[in-house]
TrEMBL record:
InterPro entries cross-referenced by the UniProt entry: NA-bd_OB-fold, POT1, POT1_C_insert, POT1PC, Telomer_end-bd_POT1/Cdc13
Main localisation: nucleus
UniProt keyword list: Chromosome, DNA-binding, Nucleus, Telomere
The family this protein is said to belong to: Belongs to the telombin family.
Telomeric single stranded DNA binding POT1/Cdc13 domain sequence ranges: 155-285
Cellular component aspect of the GO annotation: nuclear telomere cap complex; nucleoplasm
UniProt keyword Nucleus, yes or no: yes
Protein name: Protection of telomeres protein 1
Record has Nucleus as a keyword: yes
Domain of life according to the entry: Eukaryota
DNA sequence: TTAGGATTCG
């Protein structure tokens, strides 16, 4: 982006200059000196008409005065601008504006000057790698003057596009293919956009210059396209690059700096554009799903496609149609991973580092059309590899299966490799994390996971080992009272309650068999248990509350800031989001608690992915209030938090401001519940275990928040992985289809207690201070 | 021109 138009607010540019650049005083300019990391700054005092040189090249001349050194004898200099840059500058430079150039060439004039101008002039051009920054002052008063300088662009909503037109538009990236080499002569990038009119537009963007395609890194990024051609294809509108196409790309995260990633040499970017981006971000937050948090190598699952942000540490040519990339992200893949055999001489990368990372780096084999791009990558660069296929496989000479990572040929689902700049926030975060990884510790502690150690188990399969272990040791362990001796079940059942025992028994069966049915909500105050409301209940309450429009009198108070909009759907719906402030400022979304009025289940669910906490509310005449307590009063991460209807006495929402005023608000559900007068219901597993030993059998209840399964009951309903883990645990405790003799032993603590029935007391048993053994599952 | 979103030969 060799020419940038920047906006100045209170004397400061919104976008700082690159930090490596240092200001050079005009006095110190000399021909032949190294000015690589220097820039000159001054006010444009004179500009000449744009002309053409004899070779047809554009030429533009200006005089720049160093306003910091007006008293100096030599305080201005001629600047000659060549080529495309001359044309661009001529369009936007006005007298009185601040001009900055870096990457200039200093040319000494044959004779000394006597007009206070420097005896050198500066030459700048795109070919010479020059960059020009023009600081513009806010153009509120001089409207007529502005018109010629920054043309007013008109942006077409995606539902108003017409065949055969060339338009400017904004959109939120819903899908994209990172630039790849097309079968023609250019790079190609496919981008599908959506905007608040809820219409999608898929664009095919071509360019011979990789740099002039939009720099999209993730779904949810926001783009501004200028001069994109609209055509009809298969009954739908389609965008395609046309002459003069230019784009800006912005991070779509609410609160992130509004700094354009640009592919054009000149662009305008003013308050109005900034406002548009901020509005689109808010719309996107509840209307675009982004696939949760990024997958790290430590979370990969077999049979899955995922995007990986990583650093390249090694690469090697494998054969004509495949190429190996060795990458890491600082985490360890929980499965053994394959190593693609390549000759040492073919492997490019730092040998010592590759050795240190042998258990952390993974091999990704890329195929076909991705090979050319992969070959060109530099070791050490940061990449996002899109849609890597995780494949479980097992070689003939291995007893355990391993994970393979493939980037198959083609570009389906955005499959491809994107190079991330060091300025990318995800790269910054990754770099910090990689630097914190202590390589020596990891090698010592985790080397048992590597393939070569696994193979020392010989021919015994994992499963057999596991079963052998289970028959000898208990699959559960006691967390306390280890000194107590074991009591036979017959003795337990023949004794009076209440008492506590250590027992050793087998789990013959358990209820419920459908594990999700074991999750209930428990009030620790009134001891009641209730079912977890299903999504229909919540949906119903939301529908009901959406019929009450947000009350504008409640917008923007001292402790929250409000944003509202009306949906475009047939039955218009008003939505208000209230962002709770901290120190009178908005926080990063991931730290922010928001309250929402009028949202649907889907919208609220999406907002929970972006924000720390979401509280659904509705307006009354004079305050916001919580919805009916059959709905969750708070959503945080994957968890819906409910309050007890009997024990809660809701207090004013304003009480949240006391948490917001804390130095670092943690927004803990318990604390939120407390200030809102809500008695928080706890998620709990309730199960009935039928335990047997050689002497007797008894039913014992498990009442567990987290300790027994080491899985939070609150998360099981929304996490497939945890559900699977729990099912696997139960399969270990009580393997289906096995005889009693083959079942593993459980060591448990149980306590007996009396429950008074209509006619007589009944004795019940409850498991406590027991947990699943560490090596089970 | 190229691609026109909608996973996989390896």
């Amino acid at each position: 982006m060799p020419v940038q138009l920047l906006k100045i607010i209170e004397g400061q540019s919104e976008i700082p200059l690159p930090s490596h650049l240092q200001k050079e005083n005009l006095k110190h300019l000399q021909e032949g000196c190294d000015h690589t990391n220097k820039y000159i700054q001054g006010v444009v005092t004179l500009s000449y008409p744009l002309t053409k040189l004899r070779d047809g090249k554009d030429f533009f001349k200006i005089v720049v005065q160093d306003s910091d050194n007006l008293g100096s004898q030599i305080n201005s200099i001629n600047v000659f601008i060549y080529g495309k840059m001359a044309e661009d500058c001529a369009k936007i430079i006005r007298q009185g504006e601040t001009f900055i150039a870096a990457g200039f060439k200093v040319i000494k004039l044959p004779a000394a000057r006597e007009d206070g101008r420097h005896d050198c002039h500066l030459e700048v051009s795109e070919e010479a790698g020059s960059v020009i920054y023009i600081y513009t002052k806010p153009r509120t008063t001089a409207a007529s003057e502005t018109a010629s300088v920054s043309p007013k662009y008109v942006y077409t909503p995606l539902n108003r596009l017409k065949d055969g037109t060339v338009v400017n538009l904004y959109g939120i990236v819903k899908f994209f293919k990172p630039p790849y080499i097309s079968k023609g002569t250019d790079y190609c990038s496919i981008v599908t956009l959506v905007d608040p009119s809820n219409v999608k537009l898929t664009c095919s963007l071509f360019s011979g210059n990789l740099d002039s395609l939009p720099k999209i890194y993730k779904v949810g990024d926001i783009v501004r396209f200028h001069r994109i051609k609209i055509r009809e294809y298969n009954g739908q509108m389609q965008g395609i690059t046309s002459g003069g196409f230019a784009s800006l790309t912005f991070d779509g995260t609410i609160g992130a700096p509004v700094v354009p990633r640009t592919s054009s040499r000149v662009y305008t970017f003013m308050d109005e554009e900034q406002k548009t981006i901020e509005e689109l971000r808010i719309w996107a937050a509840s209307n675009i799903s982004i696939s949760g948090s990024a997958t790290k190598l430590s979370d990969v699952q077999p049979m899955l496609f995922f995007d990986l942000t990583c650093q390249l540490v090694g690469k090697a040519k494998v054969d004509g149609s495949s190429f190996l990339l060795k990458v890491w992200d600082g985490t360890k893949c929980p499965y053994p991973t394959w190593k693609v055999p390549v000759e040492a001489k073919d492997l490019e990368g730092e040998k010592v580092l590759l050795h240190q990372l042998r258990n952390l780096a993974v091999d990704i084999l890329v195929y076909d059309n991705h090979v050319q791009l992969a070959e060109s990558l530099k070791i050490g660069s940061f990449l996002r590899i899109y849609s890597i296929h995780v494949k479980q496989a097992s070689a003939d000479n291995e007893d355990v299966s391993h994970m393979e990572f493939h980037l198959h040929g083609g570009t389906c689902y955005g499959r491809g490799i994107g190079l991330l700049p060091e300025s990318n926030p995800d790269v910054k975060e990754l770099k910090e994390f990689l630097e914190s990884v202590n390589l020596t510790d990891r090698q010592n502690m985790e080397s048992t996971c590597s393939m070569d150690i696994d193979s020392t188990f010989g021919n015994v399969t994992d499963l057999e080992l596991h079963l052998q272990r289970c028959q000898q040791l208990s699959v559960t362990v006691l967390t306390d009272h280890q000194d107590l001796s074991t009591t036979e079940l017959k003795t337990v059942t023949n004794s009076t309650a209440p008492q506590q025992y250590r027992i050793r028994a087998k789990l013959r069966t358990y209820k419920p068999q459908k594990l999700h049915q074991s999750v209930k909500l428990h009030c620790s105050k009134c001891k009641s248990l209730q079912e977890v409301p299903d999504r229909d209940d919540f949906d119903f309450i939301l529908h009901g509350s959406a019929s009450t429009a947000p009350n504008p009198e409640l917008y923007n108070t001292s402790w929250y800031e409000s944003v509202t909009w009306t949906t475009q759907e047939q039955k218009q719906r008003e939505i208000a989001i209230h962002f709770v402030k901290h120190d009178e400022m908005l926080q990063h979304p991931e730290d922010t608690l928001i309250m929402i009025e009028g949202g649907t289940l889907k919208e609220i669910w999406k907002l929970t992915k972006r924000f720390k906490c979401v509280i659904p509310v509705r307006s009354t005449e004079d305050d916001l209030e919580l919805l009916d307590l059959s709905a969750p009063f708070l959503l945080k991460g994957n968890v819906k938090y409910y309050g007890c209807k009997q024990c809660s006495t809701p207090k004013p929402m304003k009480n949240l401001s006391s948490i917001a005023a804390e130095q670092q608000p943690s927004w803990e559900p318990t604390e939120i519940a407390q200030v809102l007068g809500i008695e928080l219901l706890q998620y709990v597993f309730i199960m009935k275990f039928t335990l047997v030993d050689e002497t007797a059998s008894l039913n014992a209840y498990l009442f567990d928040y987290e300790k027994f399964f080491q899985i939070p009951a609150s998360e099981i309903l929304t996490n497939n992985f945890l559900q699977e883990k729990m099912q696997m645990t139960m399969n270990t405790l009580c393997p289906p289809g096995r005889k009693l003799g083959e079942l593993p032993w459980l060591e448990c603590f149980i306590k007996s207690y009396n429950v008074r029935g209509a006619m007589e007391n009944q004795v019940y048993y409850q498991i406590f201070d027991t947990t699943i053994a560490e090596d089970v599952v």
